[in-house]
Every structure is written in C-alpha cells, then in structure tokens.
C-alpha cells in the first residue's frame, strides 16, 4: 500500500478507547469523490471534494462496521481508497505490473538492481516508492520468497514501510482487527520471522533499522494482514460502464498483487452484500453501491465467492477469516 494516508496516533488511540461507546467517526479525509457544479453561465466549476457518505461505528454483533450517512443510489461510487501498503505478486514482480501502483504494463521504466529488476509505469510511481524500494532492492529475498506465501511477503515488505516512514507509522496497523491465531499458525509465523530477520541481516541493514522487528511485532502485523489484505484483481472494461451497472460481480483478471487499506478494512462481510470493492486500472480501490442504500444502513462487502452453498461459505469464512458469519442470508439458512 502506498503512503498516501496513514492514521495519526491520536486517531488510533481514540479508536482504541471507543469500544462500547456509540461514538461515530467521520472519515472525511478519505474523501476522493469530486463533484462539479454548474453556474448560470453554464460553465462547469470544479468544487471541493465532498466527504464520502459513510461513518465507522459499532455494529450489534460484528465489531466495528461502516454505515451510510445519507442515501446512496445503486451504482454510485461511495468512495475510493488508496492503499497503506501494496506489493505485486511475486511472479509478476519483475515484468508485467508497475511495482508501485500495480498497473498492467506492456513496457515500463526499468529500474535494475543487484537482485531484481522491477518496472514502473511513470516517474511519479518511482518517486512514490523510492523510500520502500531503496531498501527492498538491497535485500536478496529469494530464500524468504521461496518459503513464504504472497501475503507473508507483504508482511516482510511492511517492515520497509515502517522502517522508511519512521516512528510515526509504527502503530498504523494497530487499529485493524487481528485474526484469531491458533498455535500452529503462531509457530509458522515464528519460523518465518527468523527467516525474515536473517534475510535482512544478510543484506547488511543497520541494527537500528530493524530493531522494531520482534516476534511480537511480526505476529501482530501478520495477524492483521491475514484478515485485512485484499487480493488485487484488475477488471477490464470502461470505468463508466462499471459505475452505471450494479453488477454483484464483474469479470476479473488474475491477481496482480496484494494490498492493505485503512477504511475498506472496516467493512464487514455479507453473503448478500450491498457494496462491491473493485480495482479498474491500478491498486486504488473503488467502493460502489450494488443497490439503493438508506441512511443508517450498514455497508457490507463480500469476502468470498457468494455463489457457494451455505455450508461451504460458513466453512471458508471460519477457516480463512476466523468468524462464524451472522449475515441475514446465513441466519436464514440459505
Ligand atoms: C476485516 S474485519 C471487519 C471490521 C471489524 N468488524 C472491525 O471491528 O475492525 C473482519 C472481522 O469482522 C467481523 N465480521 C465481519 N463480517 C462478519 C459477519 N458477517 N459475521 C460475523 N462477524 C463478522 C469478524 O470478527 C471478522 O474477523
């Protein structure tokens, strides 16, 4: 995910103190929807971005969730979100996607280094990822990549995110809900942690650059990434067509990478969702209403393939995400 926004410490601690209190949080800083107004002379004047019609608050049975603050029409773009951190799929790293924004490339700007050559779509993406890539390129990730899944690689990459952005971002993921970890998972994570630490030491990183990297930090971050990382699949077709349609699923191409976002991580799951998250051309996410939504209604996305039967959905959500789904469709037994 990119450093486009990060949660301030004050907001983070505010949220930590909110459990049990019906306080609403407004994420006006996440607004990315721009509107235009037309004056009497018929010329279009761009206006300031309007805040997205949402707030984060507590649900009755699924922790925090995202709620509509005003009516949203089917097909409306509710808001967009830039990632906190993203990483291309390892198999695509050195060729077909932009290292920073995951845009598909026919040809790109090559940036060679000792261990790998990556591609960028623009000078802007090179600049945006400079802090990460300057460190990542010094590291021979081959042993770590061989052993770890894509998601775990994302965690390894997070160390760079934290190291590069400094202490201000040290707790930026703390606000996200961690997955419940069973003992076997913790043991695997500890093994990966050792591998990551060795990989970074071999690259000659300074002790103070990785002093934050403790087992506790690693398992905490990975537990959050497990349920909050999105697999990025770009959809083809025109953006306008997609906004107009309220299709529950759009054809997606293979995954180009993984990313973690702040606001989209507060969306709960529903097997009959009213919101869809999609990626058109790059890692920037768009959240779109699938049907008309009334003020106060909770906005929910679907984490899995909703066409599966009740039993398969429940099993996947429990084994993959660690919760028993209590959405109306599951409660009805459908
Ligand atoms: C990505 S987080 C969503 C935000 C989360 N509720 C929070 O407070 O941060 C996923 C977690 O939310 C809860 N959750 C989401 N959808 C749910 C559902 N349909 N039924 C029960 N719990 C759900 C589960 O605890 C799950 O692990």
Automatic annotation (TrEMBL):
This is SET domain. Transmembrane segments: none annotated. Residues 52-304 form the SET domain. It comes from Macleaya cordata (Five-seeded plume-poppy). InterPro entries: H3K4_H4K5_MeTrfase, SET_dom, SET_dom_sf. GO terms for cellular component: nucleus. It comes from the Eukaryota.
